[in-house]
Please model this.
Amino acid sequence: MANLTRTSNPALNEKAFKGQVAIGEAMTLEGTVNKTGLLLLCVVATAAWTWGLSHSQAPEAAIPWMVGGIFGGFIVALVTIFKQNWSPLTAPIYALLEGLALGGISAMFERTYPGVAMQAVGLTFGTLFVMLLAYKTGMIRATQGFKLGVIAATGGIALLYIVEIVLGGFFHIQVPAINGSGAVGIGFSLFVVIIAALNLVLDFDMIERGVQGGAPKYMEWYGAFGLMVTLIWLYLEILRLLGKARRR
Model:
């Protein structure tokens, strides 16, 4: 049962902090918040670069950097998950690579739907603030039932995305209902956004557990990295939802 109650974010699960006891300086909540801010700055810096590249030159100029950021970020994320003590180095690298990807993706959406990128950024940070407030005030509690529900929903979404990639990549079969701008497509994207937002609560809970458990100092970077994984997912899903809404 313990395995079922871990957060659905693979970077921030109970195993991540299990047995992580500080010998010297311990992990703090303030330190994790500060490092999350630094990672956000890394994302913004490289995202602004690919965004500017896409607008100042041909839009295709940013594509190689965007693709490199997607695959590079995925590889570095896996390394960080399995080598948590490397996170002071790998977490900033992950943020920089993901920024390259987000800048290019955002520019593509912006060309089709002007203003959508800033709306997505505002909604992402607004959601982060609301979920943090709800968690700190006890309006939303990371109970076992809550965790199981969010994990099951997140797993279902991940499985659906994998099936969709396989069908589209190998069999050229699309799923127009969930990708379209109709009621089903928008409803699906709204559901995914809600689940991504609820994952933030699980992340907050796991970071707090790490602090209370006296995890080593480098786990501040790891906790910030895990939170960034969820925030980036949330931003992309909000961007997708807004794009569908604009197509109607």
Remarks:
- The chain has one domain: 23-247.
